Amino acid sequence: MSQVIVGLVDYGAGNCNSVRNTVSKLGYRSRLISNPEDFDDIGILLIPGVGAFSSAMKALSELELIEPIRKFAHQGRPVIGICLGMQLLADISYELGITRGLELIPGEVKAVSEPKWHIGWNALEVIKQDSIASESNGDSFYFNHSYEFMAPQEYIIGVARLGRPVVAMVRNKNICGFQFHPEKSQVAGMHLLGRAIEELINA
Amino acid sequence: MLRKRLIGVITILNGLAVQSFSYKRYLPLGRPECIAENLDRWGADEILIQLIDRTGELSSPDIDLVKKIANSGISTPLIYAGGILSETDAANVIRAGADRICIDQLLNTNPQEIRNIAHRLGAQAIIASFPLAMGENNKPYWYDYRENHTKDLNEEILSLINDHVISEVLLTDYQHEGIPNSFDFKLLSMFSNNKIPLILFGGLSEQEQFEQALLNPQVSAVAVGNFLNYREHSIQLIKSKLDVMPIRSPFYCERSVI
Q1: From B117, which residue of chain A is nearest by alpha-carbon distance?
Q2: Between vectors from CA A25 to CA A24 and to CA A29, what angle results, nearest 5°?
């Protein structure tokens, strides 16, 4: 068992337990983070999430977690966002009104258009050489979202094809986001999440 | 490329996984979490747990069961059906570990509440379940098993579909559920005027019917229950026979992969 503690941001939007189980299988200890005092000895922060962007940011605000997460990331410590958690890394979302995000990776979150959602297993197409993603190029992962992260090209690591490319993975140095659910993507997801945690904590 | 899915279905009655035959006769299979672990190990694309006793006094979701299955170590997306009657129920099921929910009773009793659920969780999380049966005039009808009568889709239901409040329809051939190779494709005409993606369930067991389903552009997934429990690695075996279909390839692995 690794000495690194993985912090899981627990703000009531989605299911920390699945991510926690995967983290445990990968050999890491984890802690649920739901107040600003929980960050001290965390080696890496994971932000899971299911649901609406505005509700999630409201919950983070009420728990006074927004500034501690930003501070953690700005210190160069590693952060991984998953699904809605990746979208929360953006500057702004247009889901159910306009809501500011964590502003850790430039970009906007807008509705998926035609089809209206992206549900199921899709291949990750790595478009930029990346130590975390490259080994997973072509692997299938589970997507389940109706809004998407529109990021500047320099931050896009991988896309999935939905007739057109949909951003599947973004990275800004120590901050990384997966639009899909690695914790729900069986072996491929375990390998990618394991590599992401290892790479980021050793970077 | 987005793949079509093979969904493993676990039907649960009184806390026990059962084989069901047209929802009239049942044989016990065992603990649901054990069946879920098999489906996960075999590489199902999603797992649907449907609790068929969550009506009347029990009309609320079985949160403890969702937690038990979600925390059993599976890494396959989980869909929950059974007793979801409110936005709070739906949110609790997701919080307990399900990735998506399947709505049934609310379609009959309170369609407006489904809009509230979509507002909170997003349409991608919502599947609407329609048990269908063929009428005497060779026309499909929506079967209300609580009232034991058939009916047409009404305007309110159609608006849920057209307004993108739900992301997929679980189309169940109610009469042929549990009977091998018997799915009636004429039932699809119920939704042929809508663009809603369909998950087909009930009597699909053989390669020819799987291929017919998966080649239909409106079909996003096929769901299989009873027929997966007859042999080891049944998901991989079905997938290996469908290797030219747009589905995720089968894989074999041990439980501890890391």
Answers
A1: A51
A2: 20
